[in-house]
Amino acid sequence: MSNAMRTPAGAINVERYQGAVAEGRFRRLWNANAPGYLFLLPWLAGFFGLTLGPALISLYLSFTDFDMLQSPRWVGIANYVRIATADPKFSAAMHVTLTYVVFSVPFKLTFALLVAMALNRGLRGLTFYRAIFYLPSLLGGSVAIAVLWRQLFASDGLVNAALARIGIEGPSWISHPNYSIYTLVALSVWQFGSPMIIFLAGLRQIPQDMYEAASLDGASKFRQFYKITLPLLTPVIFFNAVVQTIEAFKAFTPAFIISGGTGGPINSTLFYTLYLYQEAFGNFRMGYASALAWILVVIIAIFTAFSFLTSRYWVHYDD
Q1: Most CB atoms closer than 10 Å: which of 76, 136, 167, 251?
Q2: How many CA atoms are closer than 13 Å to the CA of 234, on its beta-carbon side?
């Protein structure tokens, strides 16, 4: 009888002991990690308040009819059905954007790698050249550079003036539907500074004794590049390719400024983001624009996932 009476009290003491141990452990963890959480607080507030929260709201709005003047009206998947079946401008915007991605990313990465290899030769004043070549990446996305680019490729611009000196009559690059998209590709390639810096850092990590051994074996410069530089640089190429592809899909400012926000001539510069902007702030179809935005997210995710899945066949790491 006495054992039965003591058992509940013992159980209570054990529970109190376990609770005290858990509380003490929590306090130690909090005291150890509290400064880190406090420093992360601004980022967490920005992530939940400015990134995740608006993204979830836009996902909801993509299933509604919303013009910012009245309350959102639920329409289900009607916006997505219209995009897939009854929106010719969506197809035009996708065609222009894919053309831009296919041409701008490879040319930019190739040019950036060539410049990085030239700078890797041990030039004097390397820091100065590196800063000069990186400058276009800082300025290229600005409105001022887009306006300057429009003036360069206008019918009476500097490019046609230079061609006229050698007897060539240049077209109106900006207003011709066959050439306008390639002026934006040229602007993108001009902003090669960011991938160039990353390529240069990757080239600096390749052991020089590998090149010396290849030279002793009689390997030419081209063979050294093909057999040594490219394989050891594939992780850097992969990183730059993924980043630059995502940035190309998100390009907006040059097309908006050069075309005056219309995507012309004949939708030849109608980037996907520009079309999204027109639907949201030109036609006030916020629900439809939200659906377009989420389709872009899915497209970028598919391209990124495909890049990672295929990287195992051509990206070589140290192991």
Answers
A1: 251
A2: 17
